[in-house]
Amino acid sequence: MAKFKKHSNVLLTAAALVCSMTIAGCSDSGSPSATSTPDESKPGASPQTKTSAPVKLKLFMGNSGMAHPDGVNPSDNPYINLIKEKAGVDLELEVPGYQDFKTKYNLMLSSGSLPDLVHSWYPTEAYRTADQGGFIDLKKYYDQSEAVKKVITPEMMELAKSPSGHYYRIPMRNTSSPQGAGVAVRYDMLVKYNDGEYPESVDGWIEFMRKVHKAEPNALILSNRVANTDTALGFGGLPIFFWYGALPYDYRVQDGKVISNFMLPEYREAVQTMKMLYEEGILDKEFATNDNVKYGDKKRNRDVLFEYNQADQFIPTGQAKLPQEQHMEWQLSPALKQYPAVLKDPKYAQPYEGLPITDHGIYISSQSKHPDEAWKVIEALASEELHDMIFWGKEGEDYTVQGDKKVPIEGKGLSDKTQYYKLHLAILFGFSDRKDSSIAAAQQVMNKEEFDRRMEGLKTWEGYAKDKGRRLSHFAQLSDEANRKRGEANNFISQATFEAIMGRITMEQFDQKVAEFGNKYGFIYEEYTKYMNDHKDKLRGFGVKEVDW
User: Fold this and answer.
1) How far apart are CA 528 and CA 290, in angstroms?
2) Choosing a second label site near 470 at 20 to 30 A (CA), which of 10, 151, 253, 350?
3) Is residue 91 within 8 Å of residue 61, measured between CB atoms?
4) Buried b (16+ CB within 10 A) or exposed e, 362-383
5) What pLDDT, on the 0 to 100 scale, is given for residue 3?
6) Half-sphere exposure at residue 407, Cβ-oriented, CA atoms within 13 angstroms
7) pLDDT in tens, 520-538
8) Which CATH architecture has domain 181-350+473-548?
């Protein structure tokens, strides 16, 4: 990791809250100078020099899977231009593709050369860089910014505080997000092959899969999307693990100890089940190599029937289905009524309740010569005008106002797929702030029965999540060594799991891999256990029920 030159204490404390791409109305509408020098005694104060050309700033950010359409310039479009106008700056964006983001993000951090602003959903790496002098503490900016406070509450700031006690990050809020996660299924295929009934056990689901596979041999019933080597099992590759209460890369609290799911008997049986489905041709033979594009294509064209995902990804929208998707209906599967005998307790196969913030956040570099102007970008990201532009569009073009209610114009706003990319700028508001406008648009165009089923599924998942409570890992503070090793540990899990499923190693050799994992990475979970036992009362107050499991 590159070391960063420390700025003066005055400047470090003057720039104290990090944000990625959060829009908020600027407190000063004047244009900043290209050669301005901030008054360091007043965080957020206007530059004390004559105005000239707008200050040039650079922002590195991810598109969060919402790529810009062909012909759209990330640094010059109606939404980013609103931010630039409100902040009074000339803002240049670097936006790597979703698949490449983490690699380029880590390379940027290790290079020691940072742009003015950085957005990321990997706070651990950002905090490590910040503690070495890479990002500034933003608390004083936050305390004097009514615009940002309207979006990000003091509680959210506390939750986003680094383990070292600093406010490097302005987090993304998550208060509008539907709670929960689980297995989504092609309901139209359930209607076709199972009279619209959800199977009640893993064996029942496997029987259903076999029935579809026999009728439609070309269907890729189970597939997978590889995000990166750290989390190579995702989406279509996770339903079986979820039903066994043993998601990869996750943990459970059992008998007062934190245990890696990878080391559980439930995980081993889930791997054996996946191996069986792979051998039968039900699991996609390319499950270990599909990138985002390939996985999306297979979902659309090869009848992938299942995926594990978060509830907020199933907010109904007014977007028209693609021609090849007209017959498809994705719905949220209820919990099993009968779990595998190996599962110690069904609560382990239920989703957690989320935090009021996500891992997304925006940071200001200590290398920035214009931290005040960088803060104005964050304020612009919090502005009501940006919120309306992102989630509703333009009045008269994308929506109308009837009384005190916004009414979407069919096919406009977020229902227009050419506008969907603007959601990636909701760095402060949270992507799920689209819920109201999306649901209003969905009610106009969606089949009523399909809409009702979706809304009922969201309600059901939320109930599961509230029963389980929040997860320990959102709050536990691990050592630098443990944080550094987590990605390596996840990669170990991916490789061993893939090899066992594909028959490249025997299950006995897989057992040896599990033992090796415990020797190499068991200390991570010992640290979780110690933190949990040392902070039980505090964690209970945060809604972490699993501390008593």
Assistant:
1) 33
2) 151
3) no
4) bbbbbbbebbbbbbbbbbbbbb
5) 57
6) 7
7) 999 999 999 999 999 999 9
8) 3-Layer(aba) Sandwich (3.40)
The encoded tokens of residue 84 equal 């630039």
Quote the CA–CA distance of 524 and 117 in Å, as a whole number: 31
pLDDT at 18 over 90: no
Are the beta carbons of 136 and 413 closer than 8 angstroms?
no
Copy the structure tokens of residue 357: 């913030």
- 232-238, Cβ contacts within 8 angstroms, sequence gap of 24 or more: 232/288, 232/491, 232/494, 232/498, 233/494, 233/497, 234/308, 235/295, 235/307, 235/308, 235/309, 236/284, 236/287, 236/295, 236/299, 236/304, 236/306, 236/307, 236/308, 237/287, 238/307, 238/308
**What's at 548, amino acid-wise?**
D
Mean pLDDT, residues 449-462 taken together: 97
Higher pLDDT, 99 or 512: 512
* Domain 9-39+46-173+358-383: assigned CATH number: 3.40.190.10
Mapped onto helix, strand or coil, the DSSP state of residue 181 is strand
Distance CA(159)–CA(286), nearest Å, equals 39
Q: What is the pLDDT of residue 480?
A: 87
Tokens of 280: 């039968």
* pLDDT for 424: 95
- Alpha-carbon distance of 280 to 303, in angstroms, equals 17
Give the residue range(s) of CATH 3.40.190.10 domains in the chain.
9-39+46-173+358-383, 181-350+473-548
Token pair of 467, please?
């029963």
pLDDT over 50 at 6, yes or no: no
Cβ-based burial of 75 (10 A; exposed 0-12, middle 13-18, buried ≥19):
middle
* Predicted model pTM: 0.80
Mean pLDDT, the chain, integer: 90
